Every structure is written in C-alpha cells, then in structure tokens.
Amino acid sequence: MDAVRALIQRKIKNLRLLGVPVLGMSADLLIGAGCVAEVHSSAVSLGEAGLAPRFTEAAERGEIKVVDYTCPAVHTALQATEKGVPFMPLRGVLGSDLTRERADWQVAQNPFSAAKDPILLVSAIVPDVALFHARWGDGAGNVWVGRRRELATIAHAARNTYVTVEELRPGDMLEDELLAPGVIASTYISGLARAERGAWPLGVADLYGIDDAHLTLYAKAARTREGFEQYLGEFVWQSRKSSLPA
After folding, report:
1. Which uninterrupted H or E stretch holds 224?
2. Quick check: 212 and 201 in contact, CB under 8 A?
3. How far lies 120's CA from each of 70, 110, 114, 156, in Å?
4. Which of 72, 70, 34 is nearest to 55 (CA)?
5. Cα separation of 20 and 41, whole Å?
6. 1-69+211-246 belongs to which CATH class?
7. Could you tell me if 28 and 194 are in contact, meaning their C-beta atoms sit under 8 angstroms apart?
8. Tens of pLDDT, residues 94-130
9. Which residues have CB under 8 Å from 89's CB, separation 6+?
10. Alpha-carbon dihedral 87, 90, 92, 98, rounded to 10 degrees
11. Could you tell me which residues come within 8 angstroms of residue 233 by beta carbon, excluding any fewer than 6 positions away?
12. 118 preceded by cis ω (within 30°)?
C-alpha cells in the first residue's frame, strides 16, 4: 500500500495490473487515481467491505480494459514462465465463455490419450514488474515470505521484483535453516525498501490485521468521485505518518 500511494503521488499513467489471482484496494486506488489502463484478474473486490467502487465504475464506463482470468489460470500462467515453458495445461476452465474469449488460450487434444480428452493450454505470463509487501528483508537482499509461496512464483516469473518490508534484518536469512525455506533469494529481487506498517490498511500475518473500519470508510467514500477525491486528499496526498492509526 505504501508503494501504491507513492505511485499515485508520482501521477503514474497507463499501468496494466495483474491480480495474483485477485486485486483489491490497491488496484481500486490506482484505478480511481487515473493510473490504470488495463486490469488482468479473476476478480477485483474489497472483500467483506463489498465491491471495489472505482473499478466498477471505470469498467462499466469502458474507461479501462478488463481481461478476465480464473484464479487457477493466473497461477498456471505464472508457473509456465517460472518453468521456462510457453504454456501450461489446465482443465478447470473448459466449458466456460473464457475459452472463446481468449485468443491466447487454446483447447487441444491430450496427446497421451487415445480417447477424446480436451485440455486447455494457458499461455505464459511474464510480468514486467512484481510488487508486494513482506515481513522481512535482509542485508544480503533476500526477502522472507514464509508460507506465501505464490510470491516466490511471482518473483521467479517477473522481469523485475520490488518489495517493501516491515523490517530489515542483518545478515543472510538463507544461512538460517529455519528461515531459508520461506526466503526468496536476492537473485530474484530488483529492489528492497523498508516500510513499517507498509501494508496498512491491509494486514501482515502475525503482525497486524486488516483495518476493517478503515476499509469500510474507504468503500463508503469511494462510491462517488467526490468522496474518493476527499479520501485521496486525506490519506494519500498528505504525509503518511499523519494518516496511520495511532
């Protein structure tokens, strides 16, 4: 979220967002601020706070291009890039409208089956930039993501990976037998910056939870363009320290 606020402050334009596998408040903020041209995702939602209002309005008005995925299709496409292959097979999408709408996906016969056995071939995704928040980075440039192994897949597939972290630790976490299984090596990290409570109002496991009250406040404010602009003025354009809860 800190990186998202910084992107808005820099007035970035024409972003193409990929949800892995979904997008939420980060995307809604960027869309409302006019930073986004395309959204590739299986969903854009504020979860229990309801619809993502700025995304919904922009999509209905045709102000952004929306490319539909399913959750497994996003992961499969990234795994293809991670493994260095141009596509990966997937079954779950067969029979849906997506197989007709996506020119970059193909339905093929399973070459290992004598009987009729269609399989969907999902084209690989190579993101230009992966961007996420994690708990720890270290002096060697590694990032600890714990059991969030989808973040490792994202980093392996992307051309560049930028990470904000709650804390920078000295040393090399890859040398710690307990931490190493949850570490993304510095080989895959393009840039690392400390941002304490950088996920707020979203959460970080075992550190702080989602600020449900703030998410509800945002969902209500962002229903109108005027309310959204007031939210930006209070929580994005002014200093971050004054926006954080005590």
Report:
1. none
2. no
3. 13, 9, 17, 23
4. 34
5. 7
6. alpha beta
7. no
8. 989 898 889 999 999 999 999 999 999 999 999 999 9
9. 119, 120, 121, 122
10. 20
11. none
12. no
β-pair partners for 88: 122
Rounded CA-CA distance 188/134 in Å is 14
* pLDDT, tens digit (0-9, with 9 covering 90-100), for 48-90: 999 999 999 999 999 999 999 999 999 999 999 999 999 999 9
Sorting pLDDT into bands at 50, 70 and 90, what band is 246?
low
Beta pairing class for 143-144 and 160-169: unpaired
Asked, colleague to colleague, whether 1-69+211-246 and 127-210 share their fold, the answer is: yes
For residue 84, the 8-state DSSP code is T
The structural domains of the chain, with segments of one domain joined by +, span 1-69+211-246, 87-123, 127-210
Q: Which residues is 143 bridged to in the sheet?
A: 137, 184
- CATH class, domain 127-210, is alpha beta
In order of 17, 141, 154, 162, the CA distances from 129 in angstroms are: 10, 17, 9, 7
